[in-house]
Amino acid sequence: MKLLLGSTLLAVVMAGCAGGGTIDRQEVVTRHNIVNTHIDSLESLTVGNGAFAFTVDVTGLQTFPDRYAKGVALGTQAEWGWNRFTDTVGYRFEETLKTYDFNGDGHEATYSVQWKEPGRNQDAANWFRKNPHRLQLGNVGFDIYLKDGSLAGPEAITAIRQELNLWTGEINSRFAVEGTPVEVVTVGHQEVDLIAVRIASPLIAEGRLKVRLRYPYPTAEFLDEGTYYAHPDRHKTAIEQQDGSGAVIAHVLEGITYRTLLSWTAGEVAAADTPHYYRVTPATDTDVFELSVQFSPETGDASGIASFAATTASSEAGWKDFWSRGAAIDFAGSTDPRAHELERRVVLSQYLTKVQCAGAYPPQETGLTFNSWFGKPHLEMHWWHAVHFALWGRPDLMEKSLGWYAEIADKARALAKRQGYEGVRWPKMVDHEGQESPSSVAAFLIWQQPHFIYLAELAYRHEQDPAVIEKYKDLVFATAEFMADFPTYDAENDRYNLGKGLIPAQEVFPAVETFNPTYELAYWDWALRVAQQWRERAGLPREEKWDEVIDKLAPLPQQDGVYLATESAPDSYTNERWRKDHPIVLGALGMVPESAKLDKAVMASTLKKVWDTWFWEHTWGWDFPMTAMNAARLGLPDKALDALFMDIQTNTYLKNGHNYQDSRLRIYLPGNGGLLTTVAMMAAGWDGSEGKLPGFPADGSWTVKAEGFNPMP
């Protein structure tokens, strides 16, 4: 690796040597293999490849979706799987727009919002929020028959032992039904949207075990857990092909047609009496049955899909490659009792983000398990989903979704133009094609805007490859053009203000009143400076307008020795309304590198104020890593660890590694990504940090081996 920009290679080398010896990566990973011994709806397990995920219950398939629906649901999702209901009314996106002049200076801008007043505009906004929506592609589970002929329910599953081998991506599930054993091995292909299973049980020869394939209908609601079977007349399924070794089933909805390709060792498939319900019946001359199931938006021949053996080989090779390259960290030998739990969270978060967040599009916050916000990504969360890949030495996984911005740049440019600005304005809540969704919050957020510059900078820093500059420079510059044009010039104070007309990352503040939020000011300043560096790296002169905005951007607002959430809220720490949601003021040093405009003593006082006065029960999973990053940069490693382990519900990490929020959001991948980002910067440091492992206490309570990390900016 070449010398890293703005950092010291020493930090990486020393971190890699800390504790001595080379990390036994397989040992670190497999000591956190997950073992389930009973049915718990929050303990489901997932296989996948970053663009496709398949989540199973204790049977190794999706046998009891209703039992798991309000836990970590048994989802089957692919990044291509989107549907749109037929618009019988003729809604136009323009009907979602409202025009505002926030600063009273004649600059009118239109925003796509949710209308409070009932009527056509509200209906149009609701339509475009719900459409398109991500699909649950299908449920693949067992139909197991008891001796009396009835279907086995969850209570009939006994002697459970299920293990996810994290090193190979293989789930081995053993259980019994009325004393008869069943063993299922489940694997996910790492290159195509396919799972394969090997089933061994005397129940096969008895004709009492079949595999069920059932197609739910999309709810088009905030959540879709794959258990909605209303409106069977609104979609169609049919067996298009079948022979003795496989079949193709077509599923036709209003906005998409896709296929399920099935290949088996010996058996047949037939439609059940229930619509959109099919059963694969294994031949009864053996106790072993192998089945591959591939979901595809294209037509295909089932005879060509990967077998169980080929899928197993793909899974083993893909996961070995993942774990063997990039960074690793080992906390064995630490005396701090939290060390093992931190290592568990780190290992499982790597697995989950590789499965759920490593595709060609920014992921939704619940990944490829179940829908939240109709299945739509939030671009302000892309930082939390993607930064860790680069810091852990796997920037290619980050760049998979970074390339998507070029695909939607025309829409982002049109959005900026519609609002009277130069450059591109990246939307916040989008579908896979980059179409913004009406929202009375998302429309006014701006902190997603610098993310593209941050992610592109990480891609360049990895090896300082000039090809990276050439690849991303046009979008870096277009991003900065909007950032330089968006601030409002304040002639009275000879400065540029951010706002009014924005909602900061702490979403409790109204757009009509808010200006100069601390975090956004710091991030704006940093990103514009980096964009200027990109111009210089590309052999271009600096942009005078950008420098003017950098020089005259409003100072970070403070009062009584602490930074305010926003200049428009001098009561940031006395008004209960402003001490909820994300304590994003801390992100001005942590997520954002130290700025010449920032006073670290003031930020240290701000951390204490926030720590002591915040309503932490009203926060989100990534707020704890964000707080830890702030503490680490302030030279408070003990405080950083305390933040990572704050005893708050939204900082819960389930047995399967998912960051639990509440009964609505049972999984929340920005928390996992934020944890990985924080641990990386605690291990490898950041621009200007000193010494090895700067984010961990040096009192001997932590024994840390770390290798392969890239320092944070």
TrEMBL record:
<feature type="signal peptide">
    <location>
        <begin position="1"/>
        <end position="18"/>
    </location>
</feature>
<protein>
    <recommendedName>
        <fullName>Glycoside hydrolase family 65</fullName>
    </recommendedName>
</protein>
<dbReference type="InterPro" id="IPR008928">
    <property type="entry name" value="6-hairpin_glycosidase_sf"/>
</dbReference>
<keyword id="KW-0732">Signal</keyword>
<dbReference type="InterPro" id="IPR012341">
    <property type="entry name" value="6hp_glycosidase-like_sf"/>
</dbReference>
